[in-house]
Amino acid sequence: MQIKLENLSFKYNKKSPLVLSDVTYTFETGNSYALKGQNGAGKTTLGKLILGLLHQNSGDIYFDDINAKKISAGIRADTIGYLFQNPDLQLFAPTVIEELTFPFELKKELTAEKQAEIQKLLKDFNLSGFEDRFPLSMSLGEKQRLALATIMSRNVDFLILDEPTSSIDNEGIIFITNFINEFINNGGGAIIISHDEKFLSNLNNVTNIHLHGGALYEKN
Amino acid sequence: MKKIDPRVKLLFIVLLTTLAVLAKDVIYLGIILLVSISINLCLKTELLMAIKRLRHFLGVLLFIAIVQSLTIKGGTVLIPIGNIALLSTKGLQFSLEFILRMSIILLSGLIAASTEGREMIDGLLKLKIPYELAFMTSISLRFIPVFSEEFRSRLNAIAMRGIDVKKLSLPKKVKVYAYLISPTISGCIMRSEELAKSMQVRGFRAYPKRTMLRELKMGVVDYLLVILSLLFSAAFLAGMYMHGVLVAF
Lengths: 220, 249
What we know:
heterodimer; A: alpha/beta; four-stranded antiparallel sheet; 10 strands; globular; B: 2 domains; two-stranded antiparallel sheet
């Protein structure tokens, strides 16, 4: 799968400067992309544009050859998963198990097969035994693993991870590094917003891309 | 333009909202609304932004107005159904008064929002309000954008789970929003706890008596504005009394 950005420009309001200016780039599955840039350079903004949480002023985003303008944020989420910088803002259900089952219950898609998949996810993300816990009372590392499990419950092709190592311990960093590498090896793609060079150096097939002055360019 | 003393702004708010509650006439309420708009324009508040945001509440306001116009009888019947007056001039007048009154109250809130938190505290202290209460008032205003940000982030989180809230049926929408309320409130409580700790480590209430870095001083313009607004309000009240359009009379 490809995510193509074509002449993408964005600013928050009429008076503010362009955050992204005429950006053209293609992200492909099988690769990970380390998105770097100074604070306020537009890294998270770019992620939100791809996800459909913000809308560009001009230019287009294509998922393979389909213009993303036709696809709502809700539908895009079945293809792209987004890990918030602060997992507290990503979790909303009263229990861990509901966090995972709620969207499928709502769409009447909670089949026996899906329930088995969710049980496997709980195991894969070291959350077995946490089913009845209140998500917001868990540790940051546990919250992040739960947020990742909710993303993986939809079998997405692409991941956008916003500063995934900013507030977790070494053990958590090793977990997320292995998780991303496995995801890439299985044919997925990942855009990782991070400045953690040590963490990035342990990822497979990384392309370094920089955002500066609204422009996006590769830099190794 | 000289910055207006926060106490004068507080006086504007008290007078405008009091007059809006006491007036029961569309023309008088219309004049108060015009005065509120003028004050907001002079203070360069985010009037347009507020009007844009008010669009979201327009439906609720219209609904209440329609209910009022349907339930309050009197005056000339405009739309009769058999012997029942479905819509009357009295009902319409009440609903219009309601919309005008709410708009004045919301615009008064905008005047409060145009004051920095620090200034608001200073103003309340000068009015002999205890520091703790003054601080709480200011902090509660600070939490409105925090609450809105928490809620928006969780709506994004819902969208990121593949749920298109706009396309959901009403019962499902209610279910989704019910899910959002609890974490939004607990998120705000967590932030307020952090704020409380931060205040404690910075010595909040460490000493019973506080001194201020900046002392508020009323200028000539401030005194003039106080006199003018009090005179205007008194004249307005007298006018409403003479025309019999004061709520209490």
